[in-house]
Amino acid sequence: MASKLHQLQSKACQASQFAFKHGSSYYKQLLEQNKQYIQEPATVEKCSLLSNQLLYTRLASIPGRYESFWKELDYVKNLWKNRQELKVEDAGIAALFGLECFAWFCAGEIVGRGFTITGYYV
């Protein structure tokens, strides 16, 4: 057990040394590749302006998303009315979608409990 702990410490030390040596160059390269997204000058006013633009752009997109939601709901209602004509592939896709939603719900519950399966902290 002690040898595994020593190995783990050694690997962590090597990783931190690598990050220390190459982190600065990686940071500079990342900024250079994404310089079209950087606003100059980076002032509080500019950040506030960008924040407001994001908020109101999102708010402006709500009517389009609302309309798309009702179109999707009408499509599902139409499928339900004509469920006798439903193909096996469509039913399978719907079942997989429902299973995926349930799995994401379960994962969210586990994350919300602090990554414990039973909900009790050990």
Automatic annotation (TrEMBL):
Does the UniProt entry include the keyword Oxidoreductase?
no
Which biological process annotations from GO are given for this protein? Answer: proton motive force-driven ATP synthesis
Q: Which cellular components does GO assign to this protein?
A: mitochondrial membrane; proton-transporting ATP synthase complex
The entry's localization annotation reads: Mitochondrion membrane
Enumerate the GO terms in the molecular function aspect.
proton transmembrane transporter activity
Query: Entry's InterPro entries?
Result: ATP_synth_F0_gsu_mt
Record has ATP-binding as a keyword? no
**Which keywords does this chain's UniProt record carry?**
ATP synthesis, CF(0), Hydrogen ion transport, Ion transport, Membrane, Mitochondrion, Transport
State the family named in the UniProt similarity comment for this chain: Belongs to the ATPase g subunit family.
Q: Per its record, how is this protein called by name?
A: Uncharacterized protein LOC111450519
Q: Which organism is it from?
A: Cucurbita moschata (Winter crookneck squash)
